[in-house]
Amino acid sequence: YGNYKKALLLYKNVLKINEGIKTKENLVPIYNNLSEIYQIMGKFETAQVYNEKIVKLQKNIFDENDLVLISSLYNQANILVAKGQLKEAESIYQDILLMQLRNSEKNPSVFRPTLATTYNNLAHLYQSMEEYEKALHLYQKALDINESIFSGDHPEVINSQKSLIEINTKLNTSESINNIEDEIKSWFFENYDDPA
Fold first, then answer.
1. CA-closest candidate to residue 71, choices 32, 39, 43
2. pTM of the model
3. Which of 101, 97, 85, 151 is CA-nearest to residue 123?
4. Is residue 42 left, alpha or beta, with left meaning phi > 0 and alpha meaning psi from -120 to 50?
5. CA 186 to CA 33: how far, in whole Å?
6. Distance (Å, rounded) from C-alpha 33 to C-alpha 72?
7. Would you call 109 helix, strand, or coil by DSSP?
8. What are phi and psi of 105, to 5 degrees?
9. How many C-alpha atoms does 129 have within 13 Å on its Cβ side?
10. What value does the CA radius of gyration of the chain take, rounded to a whole number of Å?
């Protein structure tokens, strides 16, 4: 942590100097760097504070068409995931998804690739929450977009295919376990009378 502590000290000094300036846009990269350092150090609460400041400033500067704002919202969701606050992260990912869906119609070359990323991130979140059906649906959407943009051997396409295979394996395993449980219950009730 030695170099990180030095970096924090430097950025906090730069922050003090810049907080007195009327235009606040220059604070965004400082807050961003502080947030990233705290994330690396595993201090997610503090990282979240700085990232929330970034989002607040950017909402005053940019409209929802701006990828910079969306990137900051991604960071906010990722911090929440790291903190184990999955429902809160889900809400932010869904907000990002709505922004991108609106914008992908106006500017598809910019927003379709990021839309695929959001589908993938939200699917991954659902997978970690063991909501496999939701994850499967979103992984498929990510793959469809990636296949429409990239060649079949592009890493984005391959990663989407791997994610689909993984989630299908989990779904099939869950279905197999459920089927086995149903068979055991059926056998039990056929072979043993109800004790009541």
1. 32
2. 0.77
3. 97
4. left
5. 59
6. 12
7. helix
8. -70, -35
9. 19
10. 23
The answer to whether residues 159 and 121 touch, using CB atoms and an 8 Å cutoff, is no
User: What does the H/E/C string look like for 61-95?
Assistant: HCCCCCHHHHHHHHHHHHHHHHCCCHHHHHHHHHH
Structural tokens at position 78:
């990722």
Tell me, what amino acid is at 14?
V
Using the Cα atoms of residue 149, residue 152, residue 156 and residue 157 in order, give the sign of their dihedral.
positive
Tens place of pLDDT per residue across the chain (196 aa): 568 888 888 888 888 888 877 777 888 889 999 999 999 999 999 999 999 999 999 888 887 777 888 889 999 999 999 999 999 999 999 999 998 888 888 887 777 888 999 999 999 999 999 999 999 999 999 999 999 999 888 899 999 999 988 898 888 876 655 665 666 566 667 766 555 5
Contacts of 68 (CB under 8 A, 6+ apart): 58, 62
- Secondary structure class of 123 (helix, strand, coil): helix
Q: Which tokens hold the place of 131?
A: 């909501």
State both tokens at 74.
Answer: 């991604």
Instruction: Record the tokens describing residue 16, joined without a space.
Output: 């003090």
